[in-house]
Structures are given as structure tokens and as C-alpha cells.
Amino acid sequence: MNGTVHNVLVLCTGNSARSVLAECLINDLGGGAWKAYSAGSHPTGVVNPLSLEILQEKGHATAGLRSKSWDEFARPDAPVMDLVITVCDNAAGEVCPLWPGVPRKLHVGFPDPAAAEGSHQQRLAVFREVYEMISVRMQRLITLGLEKAGEV
């Protein structure tokens, strides 16, 4: 590592599932060279309990995770982002705030596990599936690096 840390903002509409999963994955897989944050255009205000359950199951720390507005990251005192990733089609189509700096933009859509129906175990199975999809893509991002983020 050359000392450079890549700041990444992961966006989704509700910031309760996909964006939170990606935030944790990037932070854990990035080995200190990547710092991820997540936010939503219309945050639910609560991280989906199944998101927390799957993250804990996979060994990720969940303390401090919260559903928050993307407005927090458009303020002048916010961290400067190198990359903004949208993980849901709704957020990809919305007019985003202007981010400090000139971050690259990337859309990598995933199905919404929060929309899953059925028993607890059936819904958790959907979260596991989406977690694995996000894991593959975020590992690819970290392997390829910021310069090749578009190939994720």
C-alpha cells in the first residue's frame, strides 16, 4: 500500500440493505486502502435487521452502522470521495447532489433483498444471495483498483 486511501460512497434509495452491505465489504476487503461510506436519497432511518444479521454471520463489525442521507456527504466538511457507486436502479436515476472533488461514478445494480417475502429463513436466504453478489463485485473493484473501476 502506498499510503493512499480511496474514499468510496455507496448510494441506494433507503440505505438499509445493499449500500450498507457494500460499505462493510469494501471496508473489510480493502485492507485499509479503501474507506467506504453509505447513504441514501430517501433513507429509511434504520439499517434492515436482516442486513445486520447477515453481516454478523459473515464476521463483519456492525457497530455504528446507520441509515443516513446522502446530504451528509455533500457538505463542505464531508470526506472527499474518489468514487460514488450506486447499487440500486432508483438511486442511479436520481439527480445526485454535487460531491466535493470530482469523484468517478459507477453503477452496479443488485436486486433489493429488503423486498424479499416469506419466512425469516427465506428472506435471510435472499440477503445471503445478494451479499454474495455484492461481495464478488466489491472484491473485483478492489482487485482492479480505482483506475479500472468501470470494469467492475
Automatic annotation (TrEMBL):
<dbReference type="Pfam" id="PF01451">
    <property type="entry name" value="LMWPc"/>
</dbReference>
<dbReference type="InterPro" id="IPR023485">
    <property type="entry name" value="Ptyr_pPase"/>
</dbReference>
<protein>
    <submittedName>
        <fullName>Arsenate reductase</fullName>
    </submittedName>
</protein>
<keyword id="KW-0059">Arsenical resistance</keyword>
<feature type="domain" description="Phosphotyrosine protein phosphatase I">
    <location>
        <begin position="6"/>
        <end position="144"/>
    </location>
</feature>
<dbReference type="GO" id="GO:0046685">
    <property type="term" value="P:response to arsenic-containing substance"/>
</dbReference>
<dbReference type="InterPro" id="IPR036196">
    <property type="entry name" value="Ptyr_pPase_sf"/>
</dbReference>
